Amino acid sequence: MTGLHPSGAGLARSEHGPAVLVAGALPGDRVAARWTEPAPGGRFGLADAFEILEESEHRVDPEYPRCALAGRCGGCPLARIDYATELELKTKALVADTLAEAGFEAARVLRPALGHDVGKRAGFRNKAILYPVDLTESGTTERRFGFFEARSHRVVPAEDCPQSPDWMKRTARALARATLSAELELYDETSGTGALRALLMRDGARFGSIEPSSDVRGLAVLVVNDFPPEGSAEFERIARTLVSAMPEGVSLVAHRNARPGNALLSFEPGASTVLCGRGAVDADLLGLTFEVRPETFLQVNSLQTPVLYDAALDALHLSPGDAVLDLYCGVGTISSVLARAVGPEGRVTGVELVEASVEAARANAKRNNLANVRFEAGPVETVLPRLALERAPTKAVLDPAYKGLADSVPAVLAKLPITDLVYVSCNPKTLVRDVKRLAAFGFELESVTPVDLFPGAFHLEAVAVLRRPGDAGS
Prior knowledge:
The structure is a single chain. This protein is 22% helix and 27% strand. It folds into 3 domains: 1-59, CATH 2.40.50; 122-285, CATH 2.40.50.1070; 301-467, Rossmann fold (3-Layer(aba) Sandwich). 45% of the residues are buried. The longest helix is centred in the first third of the chain and has 19 residues, at 83-101. It is α/β, with parallel strands linked by helices.
């Protein structure tokens, strides 16, 4: 096995035949496999059976696993190899190779990856999504919550995922028992019947620390296909059963989503009903406080998020009085940190597509006493050209979704006197595509720094720094 596929399957390449995926094999393994040729138009052969002849030196000792479910649960396909090798493989496959394929000199611009602290690989997630499954044995049914097995919709019980804080583990087990006792049937995606679809949990994280605290700030959200009307006898019966099971400090919300498909939340007005607590939690990040609701986007790694933000903001060389753009700003986390850094005389403008996120961003700025930041709602590509700015920005942060920038955004940015631009990306392929587009308008790629927020998964964030001469904008 010479590499890894994004699914976590081992990848064998041959000079004379197709590459072959071997699920369960790892780089460095030597295997004997039975495989089928790629389907017409396909790129990979697929092994349906294999035997390990010689194990990779990078395999984790089974006596001291990174996760007991590694290889079964689909959440962390790389948790079966040592972390140093994982980070090296991900950096090369996701960032270095992508840069090289696009014509960039990776050796010049690629900086060392900012990896996860291997001594703190438990309890760092502040968000978890688990799915229910009923297991029946000898006529007795036990309900569990877990993750999907790789490449399937079979649920592997995983309430004790080591990446989750302890309160999430306790809450998942308690709600598994309580939802069964309350007679909430599992949702069937084929027929569209049943109630219980998923369990979403959000932690009121103290970013930068994963030390256990007696002051639990947790939010549990039961995503349901249907729920009785509030105030009805059936509602009261189910609510009492569920609330009585909740650990101290954890709020509980029932969120209705009757839409078919994989979307977790509906985003419809009135979809959420608070059963106990306040329906939101507060998170502390870089000395600021942000409200986290079920739908709030926030980086899920409480340890590495400050590392990511510091890498991005340090590259801007901010000074008091600077004017800065924050595009795709979400609920204003980066905008707020920028506003504090540029001081009362500085100006920060955030632009975000989702109106609810903009409202949350404004509320977050107010609660953090930041009067020098404003937020605008709408697509960046339509808001930015008509934006009336008090002061022309010279610096910008871009943090788009997986699909990257809309086609017109680089040209619009080029019309502003921006000299320093930082692009935070969750998809190195669209990052590199957009960097090439920006280069056509005089922005030069200075560096790309991978940041690992998902140890065990085939994923990296990346921070790209671009500069442009000061007289290039108009």
